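Propose amino acids for all 76 sites.
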C-alpha cells in the first residue's frame, strides 16, 4: 500500500527537482519530445530517460500519469 497525500494515493519518495518539474510542465503542454529536448537544451534520449526516471520515482507507468500527479500536487 502506498502512502501519499490522501488525494492521489501517490507520493514521490524523493522531491522532484526544478528540472523534473520543468520537464513535466513542457509535457503537460503537449509538446513533442523534440521540442521538449530543444527547450531543455538536451537530447530526446535524455528527455525519455528522465521521464522514465520521474515515473519510476512517482510509481506511475506513463508520463501522462506523472503530469496529472504534478498538476494535482500544484507543481504545474
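Proposal:
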Amino acid at each position: 500500500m502506498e502512502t501519499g497525500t490522501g488525494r492521489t494515493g501517490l507520493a514521490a519518495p524523493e522531491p522532484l527537482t526544478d528540472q523534473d518539474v520543468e520537464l513535466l510542465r513542457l509535457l503537460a503542454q503537449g509538446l513533442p519530445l523534440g521540442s521538449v529536448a530543444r527547450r531543455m537544451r538536451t537530447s530526446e534520449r535524455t528527455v525519455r530517460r528522465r521521464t522514465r526516471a520521474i515515473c519510476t520515482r512517482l510509481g506511475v507507468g506513463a508520463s501522462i500519469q506523472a503530469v496529472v500527479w504534478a498538476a494535482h500536487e500544484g507543481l504545474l
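Residues 10 and 59 are 7 Å apart (CA to CA). Residues 1-7 have pLDDT under 50 and may be disordered.
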